Predict the structure.
Amino acid sequence: MMRAEEDGDDYIVNGSKIWTSGAQGADWIFCLVRTDFDAPKHEGISFLVLDMDTPGVTVTPIELISGASEFCQTFFDDVRVPKRNLIGEPGKGWTVGKRLLQYERSSIGGRGGTRQRQRTIDEWAREYVGEVEGRIADPAIRDAVTAQRIGDDAYQLTIRRSFEEATSSQAPSFLSSMFKLYGTEQNMRRNDLMMEILGSRGLGWSGDDFSGAERGATRGWLRSKANSIEGGTSEIQRNIIAKRVLGLPD
Ligand SMILES: Cc1cc2nc3c(=O)[nH]c(=O)nc-3n(C[C@H](O)[C@H](O)[C@H](O)COP(=O)(O)OP(=O)(O)OC[C@H]3O[C@@H](n4cnc5c(N)ncnc54)[C@H](O)[C@@H]3O)c2cc1C
């Protein structure tokens, strides 16, 4: 748990935050810190931004299954942060955090299903599975590529419609959970299909036996496994959709 205790014009911050994406290169970080220790679970949390160069901040990169190290564990030992760095009211940080998560989920969800990627998977299928009379040779792969393209197109159109419908405000809403869930599932399905298309060429990790693009595809597939976790898990998105979008009871 991250905690911040008042000391004059400052907070003294202690704790650690695991899975801080990009922390090794960041100038600033925002933290949800507990400032009221008696308040109920979602209250008493404050939203603080702090300079990564402040004494007491230590960043330890974590290696992912894909071999990349894009995220870290960040430690905070008696870090002195001015109270003016507080965003919003003390103890109301979860409200700020929830809105921020809607932006994050919109951007993670929006990553899936671009036309460029659809073309890419077609091209990979034609190269690795082969073509017969201008069509992907294997009918099962052809069906899967078509289904992927239909899902991607439907998803892109839904995103466009939702933006056009949001005439009163362009800020994301709880609908961002729907986009996060579907967009990341599309991306994971696309990566699974890519591995099916590549067959044994999708087993490369390092060395010259596999091309850079093949190794990149394998690592990309492993990286996509995080899609259902980062920015809030798929199960949590389903809960939000059920409660906040569909209005179902607890
Ligand atoms: C690549 C990557 C980058 C990340 N970057 C950042 C970052 O920059 N900053 C940051 O703060 N965090 C980051 N995270 C952390 C990420 O936001 C959390 O891992 C994620 O929100 C899940 O929380 P958790 O790990 O505490 O899982 P938990 O909440 O412990 O969940 C464990 C399991 O239980 C299930 N579960 C939990 N509660 C419920 C429920 N009520 N109903 C049904 N199922 C439930 C979950 O779906 C999951 O399967 C990153 C994670 C990844 C994978």
About this structure: The longest helix spans residues 139-165. The pocket of flavin-adenine dinucleotide is lined by residues 19-21, 71, 226, 229-233, 235-236, 239 (CB under 6 Å). The chain has two domains: 3-90, 96-245.
